[in-house]
Amino acid sequence: MPDMSPPEEAQGPAVLLVVVVGLALAWLVAGADRFAVTGGPLRSFVEPVRSGVRLLLEQRRTTLAPDRLLWRVGCVAVPVLALLSLAVVPIGGQTLWSTSADLVWFNAMEALLWAAVWLVGWGPNAFHALTGGYRFLAQGLAYELPLMFSLITVGVAAGSLRTTDIVAAQADLWFVVTMPVAFVTFMVTAAAFAFWGPFAAPVGPDIAGGVRSELSGVDRLLFELGRAVFLGAAAAMGAALFLGGGSGPWLPGPVWHLLKTIAVVVALVAVGRRVPVLRPDRTVEVAWMVLVPATVLQTLVVAVLLISGFYPG
Amino acid sequence: MSGDVGLQILLTVAAGLVGVGLFGALSQQSIVMVMMGLELVLNGVLLAAGAAWYFIAPDLPDGQMLAVMALVVMAVEMAMGFAVTVAIYRARQVDMVDAARDLRG
Amino acid sequence: MVTDLSGWAVTAVAVLGVCSVACGIAVFVVDSMARATFALLASFLAVAGVLLVLDLVYLAVVTALMMTIEMAIMAVFMIMFMMNPAGLMPMTMVHNARGSAVAGAGVFGVLVGGIWTIDWPVRRGAVPVDATRQLGEAIMGSHMLVMLVTGVGLFATILAGTVLATARGRYDRFGADLTGAKPDDPIPGGLPR
Q: Domain limits at A79?
């Protein structure tokens, strides 16, 4: 098996590496996000750490007759799924967990987020939280298919679902050149599955914070951390799938990948924070009438290019 | 598996899923719960197909195809089940199979 | 039949197998509809885990993906249609439980009898290097007809499901003589029309 995952004895450090990278990405996303919102000083990069520590110490409050089991499962699942999706992102030329279907794995972790977020909304037995959960499912129906098509476009061009193969296939030409629609769709859907920026309706202030309205203390920290890690993992994945991952002159691969990830995060935050929050019932029609045909056409173009021998290998 | 009974053990687990699912599908009154029973039966089929592929003929894709078919059948069953539930609820505000007894031919 | 599953893999399969059946039983035991739905999801995820150990990565993650989305939608329907969705009071909504139990146990017994008495064929071939590629090449090659028929079937399902589930037709949207310039929808949708 052409396995790019580290050998058995290196699994422990590799897991630690993924966790550290995940936390760093989350900090980057949260800091950049706060910087864009406040337009403010560099102190915005300290603020996420400060509020994280505060949440860690905060006492947990609860509601009347919550479904405690499902609530806790949902809260823990959000960051765990985010880290698991990061496990197939190539870091320094290898992934923690290399399968023959990395792209589907990434997609599946994001799909499991549907269940996790709905559970977080269902658990506290509260009206606004459940409304947020339903909003997320409605939004999920909108973004899921465009996300799948944009991922599979990459798989078609690389002839493999393995992320390390995909990065290797971009040695000559970054995929973003031939699949800009897929790249933009991927970044938009990334914001949607982290329900951040214009897709923050599930946690909107109009429903008192929605899914997270009853979360406090560690639960809230896990939930917010999971969202940030998801967004950071999606940015790292976007950099690997469309921007050539670690390829670039002079600097070592991981540095290039980091720089590209930072660029993607900055672009995402700069654009995403300038768009107002979209209503989920509006996004569904746009997704199905515009994004799905656009991504299908994008896949068709890539398939034709592949047959004509445009992509090497 | 360690020895030569891996296939039998996994198929027994699959048979357990089929049995539990059949019990649910036959005993539940709500249409949605009946669907969940059927899903469990298909879950057993999925497991059996994967086990058969691994332990009988991993060099042929047929076991995997059978698993794909099980997934497709699940999707169809689910979509049609929801559609029928919505349709019958809209027509007569019921979601129980007993209340739809007159649909029997 | 000598296979190449290591010790931890055997343990994982055993634990996941027990989990899948236990969660399957829990579906019909718990009172809360949300818990029943997610017990079913746990059962699916356990089976996906077994498939993962059996080197069927693609099938495992596709199972997890499809079933999670299905169960999230299922949860919405459960809450919508079932009384007592949160299981705050005990309830039973069953008919002919004894007969069903006998049927379920009977089928299980017959299947187990068959499983342990049949002379299973000897394993042929080895696990391919890339099971995903094997499946993909089968779908696009020797087994293409299966996927073509499946695709048509799924498309028919989409149409039939929509027709069954929606109460509004084109006369509701564009008027009795179909002359409406803009569809009259209860929810306007996102595109300007």
A: 13-307
Q: Which of B22, B71, B84 sits opposite C63 (nearest CB)?
A: B71
Q: Are residues C83 and C161 in the same domain?
A: no
**pTM greater than 0.95 (yes/no):** no
Tell me if B22 and C104 make a contact (CB, 8 A cut-off): yes
Is the same domain home to C78 and C137? no
| Nearest CA-CA distance, residue B101 and chain C, Å | 13
> B interface mutation test: which of C74, C91, C119, C158 has the most B CBs within 10 A?
C74
Q: What is the dihedral of CA A11, A12, A16, A22, to 10 degrees?
A: 30
Provide the angle, in degrees to the nearest 10, between the axes of the packed helices C131-140 and C144-165: 80
Q: C14 lies in a domain?
A: yes
pLDDT at A2 over 50: no
Residue of B nearest to C103 (CA): B23
Among C87, C119, C148, the domain-final residue is: C87
**In chain A, what residues touch C140 (CB-CB under 8 Å)?**
none
Q: Which domain holds residue C17?
A: 1-87
Position C182 confidence tier, pLDDT thresholds 50, 70, 90: confident
| Model confidence at A127: pLDDT above 90 | no
Instruction: Report how many domains make up chain A.
Output: 1
Among A70, A161, A286, the residue with its CB nearest the CB of C38 is A70
Question: Based on the structure, what is the number of domains in chain C?
Answer: 2
- CA pair distance C132, C140, nearest whole angstrom: 12
Q: How many CA atoms lie within 13 A of C138 on its CB side?
A: 18
Higher pLDDT, C71 or B94: C71
Residue A5 lies in a domain: no
In a domain, C44, yes or no: yes
- The answer as to whether C134 is a domain residue is yes
- Output b/e per residue, B4-42; b: 16+ Cβ within 10 A: ebbbbbbbbbbbbbbbbbbbbbbbbbbbbbbbbbbbbbb
Amino acid found at C94: V
Q: Topology of domain B6-103, per CATH? A: Helix Hairpins (1.10.287)
A104–chain C Cβ distance below 8 A for any pair? yes
Cα–Cα distance, A217 to A211 (Å, whole number): 15
Contacts of A134 in chain C (CB under 8 A): 76
Q: Residue A4 falls within a domain, yes or no?
A: no
R_g over Cα of chain C: 23
Three-class SS state of A89: coil
- Interface predicted TM-score (ipTM) over 0.95: no
Q: Which residue has the higher pLDDT, A180 or A245?
A: A180
pLDDT digits 0-9 by tens, A62-71: 788 788 888 8
Interface contact A294, partner C, CB < 8 A: no
What would the pLDDT profile of C10-67 be if each residue is shown by its tens digit?
888 888 989 999 999 988 888 788 888 899 999 999 999 999 888 888 999 999 999 9
Instruction: Kindly list the residues from chain A whose CB atom is less than 8 angstroms away from the CB atom of residue C131.
Output: 100
What are the domain boundaries of chain B? 6-103
